[in-house]
Amino acid sequence: MSTPVEPTDVAQLCAAHYRPLHAHVRRKLPQRSDADDVVQETWLRVVKVAASGLLSNGRAYLYRVAHNLIADHYRQRQRRREEVLDDTQLQAIADPAPLPEQRLLDAEQLRHLDAIVAALPPRSRQVFLLARVEQLALAEIGRQLGISRQTAHGHLLRALVALQQVPGA
């Protein structure tokens, strides 16, 4: 068994190798915060092993720990990327298109809606289409049709009351 490394030895190791280790890790991990995290974790592990008395070649251990932590970083990054791809793939599989039954119900509801709109008095139908399809304001509808805003509002209300007969409309 090795003799425990003295705290002064760890401090000397740190003083001698901190900058070269950081530069080495930074070349492998371009993101500064990632490199800082790996270097910090490397030193924490070196101190822990040194305190247990199992550290014999400080420099070699230091670079081996850093190498392993860099590999861990890339494995975790790959795992996160795969998780994102899995979610994306699942979203692609889930077809947002309505089921055939829903399309039939929608088509039936649309036919019913068309029939009600067609049965409206011509002026109410015109006001409804201008308001809901063309999205014109009541004042503009009144100007276009030569009627007052209040009259346009009354025609729109008449159309909306008639359309309340359509479930879900």
Overview of the structural elements:
15% of the residues are buried. The model has no long low-confidence stretch (mean pLDDT 84). Helix 2 (32-52) crosses helix 3. With 169 residues, this protein is mostly helical. The chain is built from 7 helices and no strands. The protein has 2 domains: 7-93, RNA polymerase sigma factor, region 2, helix turn helix motif (Rna Polymerase Sigma Factor, Chain: A, Orthogonal Bundle), CATH 1.10.1740; 100-163, Orthogonal Bundle (Arc Repressor Mutant, subunit A), CATH 1.10.10.10. Helices cover 79% and strands 0% of the residues.
Q: Indicate the low-confidence ranges by residue numbers.
A: none
CATH fold topology of the largest domain: Rna Polymerase Sigma Factor, Chain: A
Mean pLDDT: 84
| CATH homolog superfamily of the largest domain | RNA polymerase sigma factor, region 2, helix turn helix motif
The number of helical runs is 7
Radius of gyration: 37 Å
- Give a count of the beta strands, DSSP E runs of length 2 or more: 0
Query: How much of the polypeptide forms β-strand, as a percent range?
Result: under 5%
Query: How many structural domains are formed by the residues?
Result: 2
Largest sheet: none
CATH top level assignment of the largest domain: Mainly Alpha
End-to-end separation in angstroms reads 82 Å
Share of helix, binned: over 70%
The assigned structural class equals mainly alpha
